[in-house]
Each structure stands twice: as C-alpha cells, then as structure tokens.
C-alpha cells in the first residue's frame, strides 16, 4: 500500500493555541525560517466546521511544518487550503534529503498573487504557471499535487477542487544535480497566518491502490467514546466512569491522565463516536497513539483495530521516555477488503502490550 500519512489536525487544539510542541511529538519538523520564531497554531476555522485547522505560521519568511517519509520516486498529496492574503505566498515544498548532509528542495508551490498557482523547481530554473483566478483568498479549496521528479521522464499535475489547473510532463522537474527522488514535504506560510491547512493526505506512487489522486477528502479525528470490554490497563486520572476518560482529552495532558501496563498481551479497546455527517465513504482508517515508557528498557506495543468481528494488529512500536504520537495506517479493513461506512462506525480501536 502507498498511503503514507493522513491528518485533519483535529486533536492539536484548542482554538488559537500554539501547537508546536504537540506537532513535534507527532513527528513533524517545525522551523521558523530565517531567524524567526516558530509558532504553528490550531484554529477553529475549518472548511467543515469540525475540529481544527493548522496555520504553519512564523514571524518571518521561510517557516514551515514538515513531514518526512520513505524515499519515493513519486508522490501524490492533497490538502485543503484557505489563503488569508492575495500576496505571493509559499504553500508547500517537496524535497529530497540524501541523509548524509545533502539534498535540496525539489519543487515549490506558490500562490502567485494573481489568484493563480506557480510551481517552481527548487533551483529556480523551471517555472510553470496556471491560469489566474483558480485559487481565491478567504475560500477553502482542495489542492492536490502529483509529482514524479526527473530530468526528462517526469510528471507534474496540480488540481484544485478536482480540476486540473497545471500539468507538465517530461520536463526537468528536479533541482540541478539532484536525484529524481522525494522524501519530505513542507507546509509553508511565509509569515503570520497567511494560510490555513486542513484534511491532508500523502501517498507515494507505488503499489496498486492509494497511488493516484484520491480527490477531495476530509480527515477527522475521533476520540475514544467508551470502553469496548477489553480494558486491562491500570487507570490514572479520568473521571472514573471508564478507562476511555483517561485518554480522550483534547489536547493530550501528559501524566495527568493515562493508562499503563507492563504485561504482555494486555489490551485496551474503545468504541468511536458517531461519524461526522460529512463522511459519506471511508477510504482508510488510522490509529494514533501517544505513549511513553516509565523507565529505561524495552517498551513495545502494537496498535489494534477490530472491525466486522476481525481483529488486526499494526506493526510493533517502541516507546521512548518522552511522549511520542505514532500513527498506524489501515488502508484495508481487518481481514482485507475496502472500508465501508458501517465497518468504520462499528470499529473498535486501541493498543496491546507485546
């Protein structure tokens, strides 16, 4: 499967709060750019009226939040964006890190000041421009980018709300001297709250599914609603009405309330709330778990998802002494096959010690 990451930014709030630490715990890189102060924030301004969006703000040009992923020969990504200014503004950057001190920005997407989009290679030598009046200030729109880097065999397509506004093939779509590869993506902003981002998906172009445009997607986070009968950890905090009350806060509260276990095989499972009404189909499900270990030594767990009477474990995850949020993706329902609205609504999710 080729689905790499999904995030609707719903769990980082509250509104207008700095979420830089929470983003870093979730594996994001956060930068202030050229000598500024990073201050990525959550906002209740969302295109669905549910949860939060993120503004990857800083006080100078060049700041961003970033996501690293396995090196790929091509990616497809989509996200909702609302511009807050008609000025020239960086929206996102795709790049390559060779892990030994080299690499570069490969491709940069700009709002170009004419209500249009400009794609530019990281070295500035390749510039590709959409027609004007495709992306508007103060309007939530869904932007998707398909990018296969290369010098002669390459592909670039940008869609806005499902319509192709820019397509480039077989051009030099890499920075000079760089390999035709990509392994990180940045969401930019170029200054204080110049744009909001929501409902982000990221795929590579491998495999037979999740390797092309997914279309206009929503990504919603559902906190635990109730215990699901397999609740064997020790409980700290919460209101005592169920284990779920120790792990359903927004945002996470560290050691104030949590569940803990050192016993292999012990499991915690929870039900999900009613799915938001704007979900009409389910493409994939992710389980996000924030955890740490209490002392040096090996501490490992697996995410657990049960749907349709079938339980499936995710890959083992090792813990550190500090809280880290890890995401386990389930592009297929347990047992195989596509997700349905009913399967997702009745699913149980949680964690198991191994």
What would you note in describing this structure?
This protein is mainly beta and 354 residues long. The chain has 2 domains: 3-204, Jelly Rolls (Sandwich); 226-353, Jelly Rolls (Sandwich), CATH 2.60.120. It is built from 2 helices and 26 strands. The strands form 6 sheets. The chain has a 7-stranded antiparallel β-sheet with strand order 3-6-15-8-9-10-11. β10 and β11 form a beta hairpin. The chain is globular and about 60 Å long. The model has no long low-confidence stretch (mean pLDDT 93).
Main attributes?
354 residues, Jelly Rolls, six-stranded antiparallel beta sheet, 2 domains, 42% strand
Quick description:
This protein is mostly beta strands. It is built from two helices and 26 strands.
Number of contiguous helices = 2
What is the 3D form?
A: globular
For the record, what CATH class of the largest domain applies?
Mainly Beta
Profile the largest sheet. Answer: 7 strands, antiparallel
Strand content: 35-45%
Instruction: Could you tell me the CATH topology label of the largest domain.
Output: Jelly Rolls
Strand order of the largest sheet: 3-6-15-8-9-10-11
The second-level CATH architecture of the largest domain is Sandwich
Low-confidence segments: none
Which sequence of SSEs, written as H and E, runs from N to C?
EEHEEEEEEEEEEEEEEEEEEEEEEEHE
Number of domains: 2
The share of residues in helices is under 10%
Can you give the mean pLDDT?
93
DSSP strand tally: 26
How are the elements arranged and paired?
Blueprint: E1 3-7, E2 17-18, H1 20-25, E3 29-31, E4 41-43, E5 53-55, E6 64-72, E7 75-83, E8 89-97, E9 103-111, E10 117-121, E11 127-129, E12 141-148, E13 155-160, E14 163-169, E15 182-187, E16 195-204, E17 226-231, E18 234-236, E19 258-260, E20 267-271, E21 285-291, E22 300-307, E23 310-313, E24 317-318, E25 324-330, H2 341-345, E26 348-353
Antiparallel strand pairs: 1-16, 2-4, 3-6, 4-5, 6-15, 7-12, 7-16, 8-9, 8-15, 9-10, 10-11, 12-13, 13-14, 17-20, 18-19, 20-26, 21-25, 22-23, 22-24, 22-26
